[in-house]
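Lecture notes, unit on protein representations.

Consider one protein chain, 395 amino acids long.
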Amino acid sequence: MFQHKKILLAVSGGVAAYRAAELARLLMKKGAKVRCVMTAAACEFVTPLTFAALTGEAVHTELFDLTAEQEMGHIQLARWADAVVVAPATANLLAKLAHGIADDLLTTMMQVCDAPVLLAPAMNGSMWKSAATQANAALLRERGVFMVPPASGMLACGEQGVGRLPELQVILDALLPLLHAPSLQGQHWVINAGPTVEAWDAVRTLSNRASGTLGAAMATWAAALGARVDLIAGIGTPATPLAVQRHDVVSTLEMLEQCEQCCDQSAKHVDCFVATAAVSDFRFAHVSSEKMKRKDTTEMAVALIANPDIVAHIAAMPKRPKKVVAFAAESSNHLAYANEKLVRKGVDAIVANDVSNMGQSRASGWWVTAKQAVAIEATSKQHFAYQLIQKMMEE
């Protein structure tokens, strides 16, 4: 999602500056190219050497750097970046940016920056709530600057309140949409993910090894590309950004009901329904509200009844989504089974993959429609999800 994206990380002078080092590391880990600009005050909290070691790039601190400024360094930095993240953004910096003060490298660079800018404020709670800071924040938002509000909790000064640097994952989630064109703007996608779990008694269940990673990645991507996204998530499905409307469920019947509601309640036909969930094919005919005793037996007969086929049911709805995509995890004969399911379930496309993908960080498979079967080579599930969304946009 961040692969090869160029992120300029700007650090201003606050106690939370130390957390910006971890943010740089996370961005690098996700494949981004990171360069850093630090104010003089930031250098009092964390040394430039820390960021240089993490990013492998020179850290920029001085406006009057003769070597850099011969090449108009502050302009080149702004033009290099796909996006700028300011973390932490202090009250002083917000005031300077709001009123066009350009008295150091960071504020001068921001005067010529055309890239999307994300501010992550962090300061004392009283400073954040002050009329001046709130007015400055509002003015910056009006000008199109994006901002993640500070978090609540224990502050460095020992007070309790709103002013902490937002969690790093929250900053990453807010940054992602700024790096991609909103090609799904105005669309509504419904995605299900993860395993469903069928209760047998108060303790035991029937389920599978699915992790929900791929479905969560698809929901994240679709939201980043501008879609309104409803994610119906089975147990264990990873966390998703706030932009994703998440509905947590347990059983297959709960998942079916929630999928129906999300498709029915849309103002118009859902643009795409994606069934990544590994739905339990069967549930127990008899469920005990208490834990059943094992007793002295070596065998037990268990009655199971078939669960509804969620994706086939959605594909047959009177208010059918414009596009319905199913997933088929198989142990063998992947394409043959996929083509048979394509017809039987009444879907527009099937992603065929091997059961060995379950619970893993990587995935591979085939994009199968009535016209074609295209192999998608093994890659991270995040990139696999992105490739699938591109296929869905093409069809």
